[in-house]
TrEMBL record:
Catalytic activity entry: a quinone + NADH + H(+) = a quinol + NAD(+)
E.C. number(s) listed in UniProt: 1.6.5.9
Family according to the record: Belongs to the NADH dehydrogenase family.
Protein name according to UniProt: NADH:ubiquinone reductase (non-electrogenic)
Keywords tagged on the record: FAD, Flavoprotein, NAD, Oxidoreductase
Enzyme class: oxidoreductase
Stretches assigned to the FAD/NAD(P)-binding domain: 17-342
An example Gene Ontology molecular-function term: NADH dehydrogenase (quinone) (non-electrogenic) activity
Length: 441
């Protein structure tokens, strides 16, 4: 059991305290659903913003500024009087004492009491047991990842521009994206569009259209969750953009100079590329295992918690887990299940506080899936209605704008898109880190 501060206990004695861990899609929706309830709602996150992950690839490809997809939590919740924000990383849960353990930004630790706990800590990248690949093939999961990737991509073109040897230039102009799911497809398509349109006329010593964007996956198709006609359309469009698609090739190794793959016939292939991005796999947040340890709940082979039909942990009706870190009906790791579970859990908690009957088990309403391929093309499967090309892109843009948090961000994103469509240029072509001479040079 951990010690709690006096201040924490005093507040708990006044009103029940609901602690929500994680301000992503699920956690933030739960907090907003608790607006007006007579309780203290504490939202804990290790970053100070909500992140709209579906548009991360547009930050990584210099299209959107980071702030447009990452509103500050304090600003988002400024009008919700019963909610407060706490910047810290939750490292453990004591289910008997009803406390969460936190690391705070100043390096200190604290324990915080709860009456009800909602954990929505999402997922983390998975290298399938090859964590050593992370250095050479960073993931695109956080805002910091996307900004670092933007610098990496832009620096590769600067290095290519400086290279006098054609082979060296070709090497710098090769970008490999591992994983042909929605994230990999969107990133590969956008990188290709950036090099072919946005960089036009910007370089004197190279033709950016010669950039080679390679999309690698062990699966036999791009966008596996989508219907065959949409997958085929995506493959054709990516190839039209110049993306080289290598399916049925599993990554065997990644090092500083590139990627080695193995095909179905066990033949090995080498792609020389200093710029590799990992978009191949995720696993549940480590907090899922922590919660399982603390409560005796089970996890599946992806590390996701098995929760009761109302999203509570078995034997612990006061602890809920939602979103990417849970397996409830094996729903996909997408924003919509997390949002709907956050909404549901808020309803369950509200009804308990009001002494009303429970709203019953969680029921998922499948609103469809979509992925963008290029600036003018997207595929969408909305309850059987299959869209592609411009209609798909319009549906995609409408849904993404609707789900972005905050009107300012919606207007800002729309303005950035309009500017890029009209001019072909991107406003965020910024490498944050200056060039530094090696020590002693
Ligand atoms: C690049 C990318 C593109 C995507 N595109 C799409 C898409 O187009 N459509 C779609 O539906 N889905 C998409 N997804 C998936 C979607 O973003 C997730 O399914 C969704 O975010 C899950 O919501 P969540 O609330 O479970 O977790 P998240 O939204 O990931 O939120 C988890 C939060 O918990 C915080 N956190 C984690 N651990 C701790 C801790 N120990 N202490 C404190 N805070 C913690 C994190 O900082 C984060 O804010 C994409 C994901 C990525 C990475």
């Amino acid at each position: 059991m951990w010690e709690t501060s006096e201040q924490d206990r005093t507040v708990v004695q006044g009103r029940p305290r609901i602690v929500v861990v994680g301000a992503g899609f699920g956690g933030l929706r739960a907090v907003r659903g608790l607006r007006g309830v007579d309780a203290e709602v504490v939202l804990i996150d290790r970053v100070n913003h909500h992140l709209f992950q579906p548009l991360l690839y547009q930050v990584a490809t210099a299209l959107l500024p980071a702030g447009d997809i990452a509103p500050a939590l304090r600003s988002v919740l400024r009008k919700q009087d019963n909610a407060r924000v706490l910047l810290g990383e939750v490292t453990g849960v004591d289910a008997q004492a009803k406390t969460v353990r936190l690391s705070l930004p100043d390096g200190s630790t604290r324990a915080l009491d709860y009456d009800t706990l909602v954990v929505a800590a999402g997922s983390t990248d998975s290298y399938f047991g090859h964590d050593e690949w992370r250095t050479h093939a960073p993931p695109m999961k956080t805002l910091a990842n996307a900004v670092a990737l933007r610098s990496r991509l832009l620096r590769a073109f600067e290095n290519a521009a400086n290279a006098e040897d054609p082979d060296e230039r070709a090497r710098w102009l090769t970008i490999v994206v591992v994983g042909a799911g929605p994230t990999g497809v969107e990133l590969a398509g956008q990188v290709a569009a950036m090099t072919r349109r946005a960089f036009r006329r910007q370089f004197r010593t190279l033709d950016p259209r010669q950039a080679r964007v390679v999309l690698v996956d062990a699966a036999p198709a791009v966008l596996p969750p989508f219907a065959e006609p949409l997958r085929e359309h995506t493959r054709r469009e990516l190839e039209r953009l110049g993306v080289e698609i290598r399916l049925n090739e599993a990554v065997a190794d990644i090092d500083a100079d590139g990627v080695t793959t193995t095909d179905e016939d066990h033949m090995r292939h080498r792609i020389c590329a200093p710029t590799v991005v990992w978009a191949a796999g995720v696993k549940a947040s480590p907090l899922a295992a922590e919660l399982a340890k603390a409560t005796g709940a089970e996890v599946d082979r992806k590390g996701r918690l098995l929760v009761a039909p109302d999203c509570a942990l078995p034997g612990h009706p006061e602890i809920f887990a939602i979103g990417d870190m849970v397996n409830l009906g094996d729903l996909p790791g997408m924003a919509e299940p997390a949002l709907q579970q956050g909404h549901h859990v808020a309803k369950v908690i509200r009804s308990r506080l009001a002494g009303e009957p429970s709203p019953g088990p969680f029921r998922y309403l499948d609103l469809g899936t979509m992925a963008t391929i290029s600036p003018g093309d997207a595929v969408a499967d909305i309850r059987g209605l299959r869209l592609r090309g411009l209609p798909g892109k319009i549906a995609w843009a409408g849904v993404h704008l609707a789900f972005l948090v905050g009107w300012r961000n919606r207007v800002a994103v729309l303005a950035e898109w309009a500017w890029t469509i009209a001019t072909g240029r991107r406003t965020q072509q910024v490498i944050l880190e200056p060039v530094r001479s090696p020590p002693g040079s």
